[in-house]
TrEMBL record:
<dbReference type="GO" id="GO:0005771">
    <property type="term" value="C:multivesicular body"/>
</dbReference>
<dbReference type="Pfam" id="PF03357">
    <property type="entry name" value="Snf7"/>
</dbReference>
<dbReference type="GO" id="GO:0006900">
    <property type="term" value="P:vesicle budding from membrane"/>
</dbReference>
<feature type="coiled-coil region">
    <location>
        <begin position="9"/>
        <end position="36"/>
    </location>
</feature>
<keyword id="KW-0472">Membrane</keyword>
<comment type="similarity">
    <text>Belongs to the SNF7 family.</text>
</comment>
<protein>
    <submittedName>
        <fullName>Charged multivesicular body protein 6</fullName>
    </submittedName>
</protein>
<dbReference type="GO" id="GO:0015031">
    <property type="term" value="P:protein transport"/>
</dbReference>
<feature type="region of interest" description="Disordered">
    <location>
        <begin position="109"/>
        <end position="142"/>
    </location>
</feature>
<dbReference type="GO" id="GO:0032511">
    <property type="term" value="P:late endosome to vacuole transport via multivesicular body sorting pathway"/>
</dbReference>
<dbReference type="GO" id="GO:0000815">
    <property type="term" value="C:ESCRT III complex"/>
</dbReference>
<dbReference type="InterPro" id="IPR005024">
    <property type="entry name" value="Snf7_fam"/>
</dbReference>
<keyword id="KW-0967">Endosome</keyword>
<keyword id="KW-0175">Coiled coil</keyword>
<keyword id="KW-0813">Transport</keyword>
<keyword id="KW-0653">Protein transport</keyword>
């Protein structure tokens, strides 16, 4: 009878080990499935991102981007030149040219109109009618 009980005990221990291995395998399979689902979501996100990039590439070509960058560079250069002029960073040649132009302008004979010699008539301000507007009456807030 003891031998039979030991065999039964041994069989149940083996059955328990097999069950634990199966549970472990199932847990591993569940983890693998969850990881695969996450991978699928990542791949789906990459696919959507790639489609968006392709649409953006269709809208903007390399030539258009280069043209915009060139225009921006030209505008930056133009603004830099304006900044230099405003900051007084003119070369001596520029300053000499400006002085010559100023002298030429001031030495020109300008014809101005003659100023009248008789006194101007005095203007009497007219009384303008004042419009009376009714003031809005305050309304109590409820």
């Amino acid at each position: 009878k003891a031998m039979l009980l030991l065999k039964k005990k041994r069989y149940q221990e083996q059955l328990l080990d097999k069950t634990e291995n199966q549970i472990s395998n199932l847990e591993r399979m569940v983890q693998d499935i969850e990881f695969t689902q996450i991978e699928m979501k990542v791949i789906e996100g990459l696919k959507i991102g790639n489609e968006c990039l392709n649409k953006m590439h269709q809208v903007m070509s390399i030539e258009e981007v280069e043209r915009i960058m060139g225009e921006t560079q030209d505008a930056v250069e133009y603004q830099r030149q304006i900044d230099e002029i405003l900051a007084g960073s003119l070369t001596e040649e520029d300053e000499d040219a400006i002085l010559e132009e100023l002298n030429a302008i001031t030495q020109e004979q300008m014809e101005l109109p003659e100023v009248p010699s008789e006194p101007l008539p005095e203007k009497i301000p007219e009384a303008s009618p004042v419009k009376n507007r009714p003031k809005p009456e305050p309304v109590a807030a409820s």
